[in-house]
């Protein structure tokens, strides 16, 4: 009886002669060899130092300590003696761009920078120039630590030439390289400024090509993280004129980077803050704060807080009049403690500026914050799990919203057994705030039906109530045809409209 294996073989080969079987075996062997070759090529193409344990550049602590350095030294020889295309293939094969500063510095120490720069000239083919620029940008990457300063000084003149090229890919990688080199301390930023690339960067901000705008914006943003002089170098080239469009860009990332850049400019001096105002950037910045995506809103919050921290009283008033309070109040509900603290700082800075103008301006800020739901949000923050948030919210409530210790408190009627009694000190307190505030109170009392009720109280059976009501009517509401009459707001389809004759109160906000 045949075995099971023989039966299977007999079944599989049934109907096939020996030549057919031989042909199928040959085809199978060819397919296996091709698959094995493809797999080998795929692995070589995917080799990276961070992932492949057999990479000659990976393990500096291996038993063969010189393997990595010798491999990179070979790259230097390839750059100097072999074809440039072969060198670039080797660079890409070793995954230089992903290996951090350690392997980048191995390549730099091997002496490849000068031969690489020598390959870049006006006659270089565009396709090859793209590869060269890409490789150059990878040698500029990583900042912990950054590339050696002498290497940066060698590379920057070449970048200053490449940034004037008209090829999109060359421009993009050049701008990325500059953005990497400018991402550092002030001394590194100064190297970039001294290279003379700022004017071209500013020009490219408005090029409309996203692949170029993105690294260009990052480079400009990095430069303005420097000192005021370095920031001014960007402003002097007219960079702010590009930002109304950038802050309203359809890409959220561009909005975010733009708001971040403005936040670094508003962290400067009052002249630079005024330049932001003069460039018309407050309205689009507030648009980002109001309806941008969350990452963009966070950068706008920083821009506003820096503005209120370093701006003059007049500049802060312009910001308030532009409508900053409502979006700030709206943002108080975010979960990120750091951002909430920054918003509370901005509100505190606005109050500090208002105090310098007078108590009535502080009260106006209080009114707006209450109107936009800010008081409830700040009160809620007193229960925040973050101690710093709790303390900041508590200080604002106690200083501006507690109703204790200020003159306005005396305007509240004293509660007695007979009812409410307005004392003489209450009237005096109102008058100390100014006649326009007395008149405004008259308008509100009339608007809410208070005059009729007070007049009715003149017939009250209680003598004290009668006397208090009579005094109020005689002192504040008895005149016919006097200037109080003109204080009544005009009712329109949109609401109430206060005319200029209404005690000459500026309804648009602070004025100087």
UniProtKB/TrEMBL annotation:
Coiled-coil portions: none
* Molecular functions (GO terms): nuclear import signal receptor activity
Is this entry keyworded Protein transport? yes
Name the source's superkingdom: Eukaryota
Q: What are its GO cellular component terms?
A: cytoplasm; nucleus
Which PROSITE patterns does UniProt cross-reference here? IBB
Membrane-spanning parts: none
Q: Which GO terms describe its biological process?
A: protein import into nucleus
Biased composition, class Basic and acidic residues, residue ranges? 14-37
Keyword Electron transport included in the entry's annotation: no
Task: Provide this UniProt record's keywords sorted from A to Z.
Answer: Protein transport, Repeat, Transport
Q: Which residues form the IBB domain?
A: 1-54
UniProt region (Disordered), positions on chain: 1-37
> Matching PANTHER family, A to Z?
IMPORTIN ALPHA
Which protein family is named in the record?
Belongs to the importin alpha family.
- Full protein name: Importin subunit alpha
State the organism of origin. Answer: Branchiostoma floridae
């Amino acid at each position: 009886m045949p075995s099971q294996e023989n039966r299977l073989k007999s079944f599989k080969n049934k109907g096939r002669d020996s030549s057919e079987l031989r042909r199928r075996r040959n085809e199978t062997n060819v397919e296996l060899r091709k698959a094995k070759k493809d797999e080998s090529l795929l692995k070589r193409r995917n080799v990276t130092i961070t992932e492949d344990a057999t990479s000659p550049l990976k393990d500096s602590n291996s038993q063969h300590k010189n393997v990595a350095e010798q491999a990179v030294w070979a790259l230097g020889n390839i750059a100097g003696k072999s074809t440039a295309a072969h060198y670039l293939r080797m660079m890409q094969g070793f995954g230089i761009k992903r290996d951090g500063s350690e392997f980048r510095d191995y390549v730099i120490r091997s002496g490849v920078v000068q031969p690489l720069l020598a390959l870049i000239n006006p006659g270089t083919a565009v396709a090859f120039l793209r590869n060269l620029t890409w490789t150059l940008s990878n040698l500029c990457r990583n900042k912990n630590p950054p590339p050696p300063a002498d290497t940066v000084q060698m590379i920057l003149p070449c970048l200053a030439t490449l940034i004037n090229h008209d090829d999109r890919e060359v421009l993009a990688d050049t701008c990325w390289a500059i953005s990497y080199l400018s991402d550092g301390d002030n001394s590194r930023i100064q190297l970039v400024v001294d290279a003379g690339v700022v004017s071209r960067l500013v020009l490219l901000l408005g090029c409309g090509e996203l692949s170029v705008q993105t690294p260009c914006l990052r480079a400009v943003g990095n430069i303005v993280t420097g000192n005021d002089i370095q920031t001014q170098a960007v402003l002097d080239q007219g960079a702010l004129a590009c930002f109304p469009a950038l802050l309203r860009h359809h890409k959220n990332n561009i909005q975010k980077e733009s708001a971040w850049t403005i936040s670094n400019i508003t962290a400067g001096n009052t002249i630079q803050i005024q330049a932001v105002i003069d460039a018309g950037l407050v309205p689009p910045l507030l648009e980002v704060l109001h309806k941008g995506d969350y990452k963009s809103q966070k950068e706008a919050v920083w821009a506003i807080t820096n503005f209120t921290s370093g701006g003059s009283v007049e500049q802060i008033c312009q910001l308030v009049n532009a409508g900053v309070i409502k979006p700030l109040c709206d943002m108080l509900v975010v979960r990120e403690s750091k951002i909430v603290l920054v918003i509370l700082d901005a509100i505190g800075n606005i109050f500090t500026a208002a105090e310098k103008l007078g108590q009535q301006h502080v009260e106006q800020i209080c009114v707006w914050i209450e109107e936009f739901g800010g008081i409830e949000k700040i009160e809620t923050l007193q229960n925040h799990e973050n101690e710093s948030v709790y303390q900041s919210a508590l200080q604002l409530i106690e200083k501006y919203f507690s109703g204790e210790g200020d003159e306005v408190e005396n305007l509240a009627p004293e509660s007695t057994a007979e009812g409410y009694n307005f004392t003489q000190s209450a009237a005096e307190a109102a008058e100390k705030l100014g006649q326009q505030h007395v008149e405004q109170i008259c308008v509100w009392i009339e608007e809410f039906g208070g005059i009729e009720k007070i007049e009715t109280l003149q017939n009250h059976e209680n003598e004290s109530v009668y006397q208090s009501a009579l005094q109020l009517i005689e002192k504040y509401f008895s005149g016919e045809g006097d200037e109080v009459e003109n204080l009544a707001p005009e009712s329109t389809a949109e609401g109430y409209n206060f005319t200029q004759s209404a005690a000459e109160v500026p309804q648009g906000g602070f004025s100087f």
